Amino acid sequence: MPEIKHKLSQFDPVWSRVCEEAVAAIAVEPLLGGLVHSSLLHHPTMERALAYRFSLKLASGEMSEQILREIADEAYASDPELGQAARADLMAVFDRDPACHRYLQPILFFKGYQAVQAYRVGHWLWTQGRIDLAYFVQMRVSEVFGVDIHPAAKIGKGLMIDHAHSIVIGETAVVGDNVSMLHSVTLGGTGKEDGDRHPKIGNGVLIGAGAKVLGNIHIGNCSRIAAGSVVLQDVPPCTTVAGVPAKVVGEAGCPQPAVMMDQVIKGCN
């Protein structure tokens, strides 16, 4: 790794670790050298690397890599919280997903992480009034990753989406900090109503695979939603709900369900 790259990365422990892992990965598998260099080691910061991955993944005949790269670079430069959220999301995946053994894996290989970072750029565009471009990002994220998050949705830091297939998050949904959800989760509406019509997910919530949370309802902090449940009413904090329709079946079982990732209803040990 070039000396200047090392000097820049050492002030950012997360990015520094990614770069160290990148060097080690090439030593083990030289055939990945081009991918790892172009995606990670050629960039002085994590933000620049994420902008490159954003442009590479979402480019098409309708929008070039260069234009998308400029859009993402502008977003990261204008809003430091995008980079902070990216690091928090990365830490969340590493801490909660037993299949993640290195920091570089989500950036290179995990579509859930990549889709969320692309959504964050799209959300930034939305807040800047660049609505059609935000919709374009949403469309490409859905086409490429199978994850459909409306750019107007508000998502906190430390989000972990495991597998991430068929995730749907609606326009007026709000997701708090340190939330974990598995594949095929829907945060949707209940019909054709306009206005504020999507769920509000509190901090530290764990949402199991295939769960559907529908309507303008509130899911309390540190609660659990069992896999396959259909939630149509508010959920109190620190409880577990399950069933169709979902009902309270007990306490959450531990202080931080989203971190423990324990989906057994009898509770966390």
Automatic annotation (TrEMBL):
Belongs to the transferase hexapeptide repeat family. Residues 14-118 form the Serine acetyltransferase N-terminal domain. It catalyses: L-serine + acetyl-CoA = O-acetyl-L-serine + CoA. One of its GO terms (cellular component) is cytoplasm. NCBIfam families: cysE, EPS_EpsC. It comes from Gemmobacter aquatilis. It comes from the Bacteria. One of its GO terms (biological process) is cysteine biosynthetic process from serine. It is an enzyme of class 2 (transferase). This is Serine acetyltransferase. Pathway: Amino-acid biosynthesis; L-cysteine biosynthesis; L-cysteine from L-serine: step 1/2. Keywords: Acyltransferase, Amino-acid biosynthesis, Repeat, Transferase. GO terms for molecular function: serine O-acetyltransferase activity. It holds the Pfam family SATase_N. Its EC number is 2.3.1.30.
